[in-house]
Please model this.
Amino acid sequence: MVYKKRYDGRKFDEMRKMKMEVGVIDNADGSAVFQIGNTKVIAGVYGPKILHPQRLRQEGKGVLRVHYRMMPFSVSERKNPRPGRRDIELSKVIKESLESAIFLENFGGSVIDIHVYVVQGDAGTRCACVCAASLALADAGIPMNDLVAGVASGSVGEQVLLDLTYDEEHVENEDVTDMAIAYNENLDKVTLLQMDGNISEKNMVKALELGIKGCNIIKKEMQKVLKKRYE
Amino acid sequence: MEKIKLENKEIVVTGQIMSNDMGIVPGKNTFRIGEKIIAKQTGLSEIKGVVMKIIPLTGTYTPEYNDEVVGKIIETQSSGWQVDIGAPHDAYLPMTEYSLAYIDTRRTDAMDLLKKGDMVFVRVIKYTQTKNLLVSMKGRRYSKLKEGIIKKITPQKVPRLIGKRGSMITLIKKATNSNMLVGPNGWIWLKGNTVENELKIVKSIELVEANAHKQGLTEKMEKILK
Model:
């Protein structure tokens, strides 16, 4: 079987429908909800504030902490809320994708805490978390050089496609590859790149270019949402 | 390449390209990559001559030398107090800076002068890169605030509450016949002669908080205060 038509009827280079909102948590300094298709994440930013314990403080440089978790009800089979290997890895990966965007040298001795929770998971949660986190950071008024956007791309068989769903990641009798991308447009840098599966060199380049295009579309959408708050 | 040009007082979003003209200089809250000038924060653009800057609409308070702010005592120590002034770091108020008069630090008990939970009006006298933050109460303007109401707003909206040369704040003070202290950290202390007047001020502060980035605030304010 060759994967010629997508399950949800989208084009191969089309993303799922997006929905975003900023300023959803009053207690937080900045917050955002990001939804792409059935994947929905919520992010809250606290800080900059004093970092305890003192030995973790860095002179002339702020510290960024990211806390990624999946809610137990976010997937069809209950997810154990205890932080596992995956949660810790994704926290680290999201942190590194955002670190280059923030002017951390302004916050020596302090910490910025980002909490991202997956409310509903349908593939591409780490990319959605990057988007939600950078929206929340912008909402908190933390100086950044760009909004970092993320999207997944990959291939099913020989077909390169953008923004895979859970069903597409599990197509039977086909080689499925999915690749998480986060892109900083102003620096022209890919800040997150993870891949799972087998892919030819030609298709990999294609998928990467497709992903970057998708990131730019998401970034424009994010800017619209931030602007809307003050109109 | 197409020239990008912004109007004055336009809403700019983090990461937005504000200009690609090498004749324009990036000011506060902006920076340059190649030819592009990029916004660091969400706010209103302001162009003065060749300098382009941003007045932010959100964010935390960063202390500056000589800032007069309202603060809260959070801890009493042997020869001073820890004060929360809404900054990322706590400030320290040494006992020697309590008043203009001489204080013998060995014979006075810090608890007799100020206690945890007291509100004070202080001035920032030191803020270093290592986040050493010192405040002082030396001077006639500064004292312990014994009664009144404390209200907090976003620090970036304080200039709107004060107005041009204090026009907005004098309008509120005159209309309600009350006392008000506003610091750049967004903490406001207020005290009116009647409860109705105090509630009026609280209402007017909330109006500024909601409409800080819009025009025609003074007319709206006059309506509320009538």
Q: What stands out?
A: Chain A touches chain B at residues 29-30, 47-50, 59-60, 103, 107-110, 137-147, 185-187, 219, 223, 226-227, 230-231 (CB under 8 Å). The two ends of chain A are 51 Å apart (CA to CA).
